[in-house]
Amino acid sequence: MFAGVDIGGTTTLVALCTPELAVVDCQEVPTPAAEGGTAMVGAALDTLGVLLARVPARLRAVGVGAAGLVDARAGRVLVASDSFRAWAGFEVTATMEAALGVPVFLDNDVNAFLRGETSKGAVVGEPHVLGMTLGTGVGGALWLDGALYEGPHGAAGEAGHIPGFGDLPCTCGGRGHLETLASGRSIGARYGERTGRSLSARAVAEAAGRGDPDALAVYEAAGAAVARGILITAGLLDVTTFVIGGGVSGAWTLLEPSIRAALAAEPPVSGHPVRVVRTGLGGAAVAIGAASRARSESQERLAPFQPLPRGTNTATFKSG
In principle, which of 76, 77, 149, 262 could form an S-S bond with 142, CB 3.0–4.6 Å? Predict the structure, then answer.
C-alpha cells in the first residue's frame, strides 16, 4: 500500500491506495494549524495509524501534499501563510520517516493535486496542463511534456500570484494578484465590501443561488479573473488544457459561465481551443497525487495488490 496525506489549512485527509492508486480507505480530520508543525504531522500520523489498523497491508511509502512553498528534495516547508504556526521550516519527511520507518516524499499541495489529476483524474494522458486550486488561496502547478515542471526555484505555475488584477492587497504582501479576486477568502471579502456582511465563500455561493445580485457579481468577477489567468498561461506557454480544483470550485455552476465567456471573447493567439475542466477527484486529488509521487519514487519492484491476512500489519509508527 501507499499512503497519501493532504495537510491543508482546515483539514487533513489521509488515504491508503493500492499500487494502481485505487483508494482502499481514507479519513479526514481537522488540521491543528494553530498548534504548529509537530501537532499537524502528529494528527496525520495518528490518522494513518487508524487506517493501517483497519486495512491489513504493508505500507511501502508515504506521499505528503502540504500547504505552502516546500523544498521537495529536502522534505521541509519553506514558506507558509499566516494560517499556520511553526510550519515554515518544519522537517516533514524526516519527522514522518522516523515515526513510520518507510520512505516519505513531500510535495506542495497544488503539485500533488496536479499529479493526482494526471494520474487518475480529469486530465489523464494529457501531456501539458496547468492545474489551479481555488481554496483559501489560489495555487497553481504546471505539467509539461508528461511531467511536473517546478522551475529552478520551485515556484513554476503559481498562477495565484500573477499581478495585474487591480490593486487589492494580497496575503503574500503583494497587490493586485489573481488570488485577491478568486480565492475563498477573497470572495468573502469582496462580498463584504459590497454589502457590509461577513460571509464565507460557500455562504456567498448559496446567496448567489438565491439570486443575490452582489453574490452573483462577486462570482462573475472571480470566474473572469480565473479566465484571464488561463489566457496569460496559454499565451506564454502554449498550454491549453486546464484543471480547476479546490473548495471554491464546488461553485462551478457560478464560475463556469464567466470563465467560458472570457475565453470566447479573447481566444489564445495560437487559435487552439482551450479546454477547462473541473477536478475529477474532488477533495481526494491531493492525497491521491501524493500517493502517486510515493509510488513513482519507490524503487522496489511491486507485485499486484494482494491483501495480507486480517490482523497482520508490518508497519509501525509513533506520533509526535
Answer: 149
Start-to-end CA span in the chain (Å):
23
**Rounded distance between C-alpha atoms, residue 58 and residue 52, angstroms:** 9
Quick: pLDDT tens for 211-239.
Answer: 999 999 999 999 999 999 999 999 999 99
- Take residue 173 and report the three cell numbers written for it: 504582501
Question: What Å distances lie between residue 185 and 8, 163, 192, 222, CA to CA?
Answer: 15, 18, 11, 12
- For the CA atoms of 253, 258, 259, 265, the dihedral, rounded to the nearest 10 degrees, stands at 150
Q: Nearest Cα to 246, choosing from 172, 137, 158?
A: 137
Each residue's pLDDT tens digit, 163-204: 999 999 998 889 999 999 999 999 999 999 999 999 999 999
Q: What is the DSSP letter of 145?
A: T
Q: Is the pLDDT reported for residue 317 higher than 50?
A: no
DSSP state of 204: H
* 187's grid cell: 470572495
CA distances, 143 to each of 91, 112, 116, 131, 146 (Å): 26, 11, 11, 8, 6
- For residues 160 and 140, the answer to whether their CB atoms sit within 8 Å is yes
Q: What is the pLDDT of residue 274?
A: 94
Query: Which run of H or of E encompasses 30?
Result: strand 23-30
- Counting every residue, how long is the chain? 320
Is the pLDDT assigned to residue 303 strictly greater than 80? no
Query: What's residue 62's pLDDT?
Result: 98
Beta bridge partners of 278: 244
| Predicted local distance difference test score (pLDDT) of residue 319 | 43
Q: In terms of pTM, does the model score above 0.85?
A: yes
Amino acid letter, residue 253: T
The three cell numbers locating residue 207: 446567496
Q: How far apart are CA 224 and CA 230, in angstroms?
A: 10
What sign does the CA torsion over 271, 145, 150, 148 have?
Answer: positive
